[in-house]
Amino acid sequence: MAKTDYKSTDALMRHLRNNGISISGTSQKQQLINTGYFHGYKGYRFFVSSSNRLPFTSYNEINATIQYDTKLKSLLYGKMMFIETALKNIALNTIMTEIDSSSVYDMYDKAISSYKNAPAGTREDIKKKYQNNKLNLQGSIQNAIAAAYRKENPKITHFYNNVNYNEVPIWAIFEILTMGDFGYLLSCLTIDMREKVSRSIGINLSSDTYRELLYKYVYALKDLRNAIAHNDVVYDTRFKKMDPSRPMK
């Protein structure tokens, strides 16, 4: 087994000085300990890409950048939680109103695109794509339910450990969906249902012919949400996995 090269905090400070970063004293030593060498210095020494090194010469500059990013995440956290909750509940309310049911099976049959409910004239390969997406959605929802039950999440166990219930309603499922799973569910809705949800949210549909903005916005927000939740660097938007299309802007 290879021996790991360990450096004490003092050794890391010497390493930083050797690389042109002035750092000294007990205060900056504690800052380095608190923020971490790998999370702090190595995470914040570049902008977006590791090839774009920032011209830091003092640990004060690095620490100020870390503090700025931390405050930015604190500012965004509450707003992000509100947006996630609001989007889920608006979509949930619209879907249940349109299908007149809280049954997930009714949602699958009436609100989710599939081979059988594809619009007239839809190509065979597109019909099969719809059906495959529906099956993938059913699998991801079932996996989410199983994981929640395994962790004894009362939002789910209530419906399985009670003889008066025979299925988990849609509103309980929405409570446990990740932003990624929620975005995928929206992408699987029929175009008519996506339009109804989009209008309920207030999305401008004038440049959204195929009603895709709804789930694309959620995917974009998911990347930000996860970066905040995992305390990743946010201020330079390195977390984003997709470039917004012109209609999204």
Question: Any idea what the shape is?
Answer: elongated
| Run of helices and strands | HHHHHHHHHHH
Structural class: mainly alpha
Individual helix count: 11
Strand tally is 0
Arithmetic mean of pLDDT: 96
Strand content: under 5%
Taking the alpha carbons of the first and last residues, their distance comes to: 51 Å
InterPro entries: Abi_system_AbiD/AbiF-like (IPR011664)
Pfam families: Abi_2
Protein name: Abortive infection bacteriophage resistance protein
Structure description:
- This protein has 249 residues and is mainly α.
- It has two domains: 9-57, no CATH class; 72-229, no CATH class.
- It is 63% helix and 0% strand.
- It has helices spanning 9-18, 25-35, 37-44, 59-99, 104-110, 124-150, 154-160, 170-176, 179-188, 191-201, 213-229.
- The longest helix is centred in the first third of the chain and has 41 residues, at 59-99.
